[in-house]
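Thread amino acids onto this structure.
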């Protein structure tokens, strides 16, 4: 291992984290260590060092110090108070560590500045931790990565590490239908997970300094527009149904106390979508693209569909 490489620690690497892990492994500026509750063959087969942890402060701190990590990336997928507890442990471990002074919490949402409480289960988990970061980071640099929807959900499942979410995403490739939330004209944005990962790698190497929120985007548009793109690419019409906005809002209002039920969270994602909250702000996104991501590509849906057609395995 080259002495000048920085070590990046990745915690709770599930679907999204695998893209980042692969790109960091391929980049000779970095060493990679994974912090996880267990050992997974995906990492061992790639010779990625795994440090088993209970995600407590003491456990994470000892791993950061042992590995001399400079940056901690979290991909934790929890939508209850454990999200806050574990991220507080990540932050306090960074504050106490000798070397790890950068933290990227697990976000991957939309325009969180205009819509901090969408989806609602982010409002009760990510949003309180965002407020903690603002006052308690104590010398730790942090940024929140926001990308809108992952574009991977337009692809057959074997083309991405992202697991399909047919209850949340309007287009269902298996039964070739679209259940459009709202009118279908609400503004959205989508970004390929692989390209979000490359932006994260660029930020790991960055020396300009991180902004509190970093936006990335492959395409802005509406579901009515992207359904047309799919129909034209596959030369096949997609049968569509539309769920009226009031139906979504009434359901959410009646189920606010059930926000740990997956079916309710799925409708809260519908609300995220019809509120236009998945749409990342264009001006800031393009400014940050120029500042940080001059060497990154952010593909449109049409480009991604074309790319996936020619690729074996994940894009
Ligand atoms: N914008 C979008 O379209 C979109 C879509 C999907 C996800 N997301 C967001 O992206 C982030 C990453 O999502 P993902 O799909 O990559 O996550 P994921 O694969 O479902 O899970 C990531 C990791 O979280 C850890 N984890 C899960 N349950 C846990 C528990 N009960 N206790 C402790 N750790 C637990 C696991 O790590 P270990 O087993 O290694 O401990 C898991 O591998 C999340 O914040 C998610 O909300 C956004």
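Threaded sequence (315 positions):
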């Amino acid at each position: 291992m080259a002495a000048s490489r920085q070590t990046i620690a990745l915690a709770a690497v599930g679907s999204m984290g695998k893209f980042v892990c692969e790109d960091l492994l391929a980049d000779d500026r970095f060493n990679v260590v994974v912090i996880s509750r267990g050992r997974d063959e995906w990492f061992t087969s790639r010779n990625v060092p795994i440090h088993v942890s209970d995600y407590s402060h003491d456990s994470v701190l000892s791993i950061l110090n042992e590995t001399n990590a400079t940056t901690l990336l979290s991909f934790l997928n929890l939508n209850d108070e454990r999200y806050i507890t574990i991220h507080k442990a990540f932050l306090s471990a960074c504050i106490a560590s000798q070397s790890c002074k950068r933290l990227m919490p697990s976000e991957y949402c939309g325009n969180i500045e205009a819509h901090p409480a969408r989806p609602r289960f982010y409002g009760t988990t990510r949003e309180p931790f965002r407020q903690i970061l603002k006052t308690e980071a104590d010398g730790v640099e942090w940024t929140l990565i926001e990308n809108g929807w992952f574009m991977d959900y337009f692809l057959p499942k074997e083309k991405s590490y992202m697991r399909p979410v047919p209850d949340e995403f309007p287009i269902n490739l298996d039964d070739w239908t679209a259940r459009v939330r709202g009118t279908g004209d609400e503004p959205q944005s989508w970004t390929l997970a692989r390209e979000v990962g490359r932006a994260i790698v660029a930020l790991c190497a960055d020396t300009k300094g991180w902004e509190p929120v970093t936006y990335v985007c492959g395409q802005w548009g509406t579901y009515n527009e992207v359904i047309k793109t799919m129909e034209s690419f596959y030369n096949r019409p997609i049968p569509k149904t539309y769920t009226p906005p009031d139906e979504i809002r009434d359901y959410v209002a009646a189920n606010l106390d059930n926000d740990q039920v997956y079916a309710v969270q799925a409708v809260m994602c519908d609300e995220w979508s019809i509120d236009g909250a998945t749409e990342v702000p264009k001006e800031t996104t393009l400014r940050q693209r120029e500042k940080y991501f001059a060497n990154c590509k952010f593909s449109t849906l049409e480009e991604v569909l074309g790319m996936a057609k020619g690729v074996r395995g994940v894009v």
